[in-house]
Amino acid sequence: MHFSVSLTISGLGIERSDRDLCRDLSFSVQAGEAIRILGENGAGKSSLLKVVAGVMSVQEGQIFFADQDVTLDRRLLQQTMIYIGHSTGLKERLSVAENIAFYSPHAPLDQVDQALRQLGLFHLQDVLVKSLSAGQARRVALARLWFTNASLWLLDEPFAALDASGVAMLEAHIQQHLSRGGMVLLTTHQAPCSLSVRELALVP
Ligand SMILES: Nc1ncnc2c1ncn2[C@@H]1O[C@H](COP(=O)(O)OP(=O)(O)OP(=O)(O)O)[C@@H](O)[C@H]1O
Fold this sequence. Notes:
The protein is of the alpha/beta class. The chain has helices at 45-53, 75-78, 96-103, 109-118, 134-142, 164-179, and strands at 7-16, 19-29, 34-38, 60-65, 68-69, 81-84, 152-156, 183-187, 198-201. A hairpin with a 2-residue loop joins strand 1 (7-16) and strand 2 (19-29). The longest helix has 16 residues, at 164-179. It is globular and about 50 Å long. Residues 16-17, 19, 21, 39, 41-47 line the site of adenosine-5'-triphosphate (ATP).
């Protein structure tokens, strides 16, 4: 699979809790490109991802995907994007394998096994998520990236709680997505080690 679409944000304004997080923000993400959103705590990085994902509405400006205006109707974009938020969103009372089956029901079982091994989760597949460490739970949440066909990945602090091997594994997986023409919009307070990203600063 190879992707060749782009995302364009034009004149975006985001207001939250009576505060302007950004005004007249414009940028594009091209096929094969990763953008890291920068900004201090509370600057609005997560809010920007949520607006693009359609979790928060657009108050001002436009969003174009594949040359179509999707500002008011985000369905075209939502069909080909994956959003993994700051919280893992996992089902605490389900096991690792059950969570993966819940979030990626169409994943072939042999590929699930392969991904579990790559993610270092194979020996934990029957463990309930509520018993996992933060880094282990993050790995389970990220497993969705191993089974998605989405062209746009929206990742809020995806490296949080990961150890060095987890960071390297995720960076390699993101790089593979970019090499297929995928797009990534991510937030992280730590600069990626081996991943080439364009930086976008959110300033009030
Ligand atoms: N659920 C909410 N309801 C109202 N206001 C919120 C909510 N979540 C965040 N905010 C406000 O929106 C602003 C931006 O928050 P956001 O989480 O987007 O920032 P951030 O840059 O991602 O921060 P961090 O680096 O701490 O994760 C903050 O000032 C915050 O107070």
